[in-house]
Amino acid sequence: MKKPIIAIPIGDPAGIGPEITVRAVSDPVVKNAARCVVVGDRNVVENTYQITGIPLHTNVIENPEDGDYSDGVLNLVNVENIELPKLVIGQISGMCGKAAYEYIAKSIEIANAGKADAVATTPINKESLKKGGVPYIGHTEIFGALTHTEDPLTMFEVRGLRVFFLSRHVSLQKACSMVTKERIMDYVKRCTQALAKLGVTEGTMAVAGLNPHSGEHGLFGDEEVREVIPAVEELKRLGYRVEGPIGADSVFHLALLGRYNSVLSLYHDQGHIATKTLDFERTISITSGMPILRTSVDHGTAMDIAGSGTASSVSMVEAILLAAKYSPAFTGKG
């Protein structure tokens, strides 16, 4: 069986995206697991060879199946959109924000056409996107728009711990107001479908508690009594394997031990803190509920160290490996 093809947009050219891409695609572990196709500006990529000290041969291609996946070769879909003399590494710019968007859009186009089995993304900068006139705040919104997916699901995975999020980038006050029976039921149903598409069909999903000790039966906070418990009970009646609310101070540990196949975190930081404390570099974001599979590093552009040759590619390697791991089940090519 052929190794899956993973499309990798290089991210913001002024950040560490190009560097971690070059490091990751030349890693023997990655080469053993996947065929990587980089999407970016050739001049930026080849300038990155000098930064990393990794001498690769650039093989410009249009169709990923035509790539040369032998050692020492970087297969590139060349999107020429950077004036290299104007590129200031480590500096936010509209040119780089627009370029980063175009790399992502091209990667999605390749995956939508069935020419790549998944997309593994590198960091982009929200401020650069805005300066570049890009009408989306981040990756999830871009992927949602370009795959015609209304509300993509975000799942983190680290060391086998899987965490979904009931809400993303909203205030904590608004996140609490979004903890409703209807929303929880909708998310558990869609998360269960997303897991099945990734090949995860065994086990039980846990719903985290919102308040300390899940509110102690309404003693301090009644969201669990009003919304969470009724949702879980109805889901069980419908045949879903779900439990909760489970206190947020223990549910992630229990899932890590294997008691649950996943956890539905009720707000952004609840799940982020748990996964990133466990292993910051290996916490990978998986966007599902779309026609294509997308994995991503979960760190930023690190403008402060960009261009220094010191950026770690551990997270990028892990993102590609997870894309390769799940893509056969997702695409049906396994």
TrEMBL record:
**UniProt keyword list:** Metal-binding, NAD, Oxidoreductase
Where in the sequence is the signal peptide annotated?
A: none
Q: Does the keyword Phosphoprotein apply?
A: no
The UniProt record lists the EC number as 1.1.1.409
Entry-linked InterPro entries: PdxA_fam
Enumerate the GO terms in the molecular function aspect: metal ion binding; NAD binding; oxidoreductase activity
Q: Which cofactor does it need?
A: a divalent metal cation
Specify whether Protein biosynthesis is a keyword of the entry. no
Subunit comment: Homodimer.
Family according to the record: Belongs to the PdxA family. PdxA2 subfamily.
Q: What is this protein called?
A: D-erythronate 4-phosphate dehydrogenase
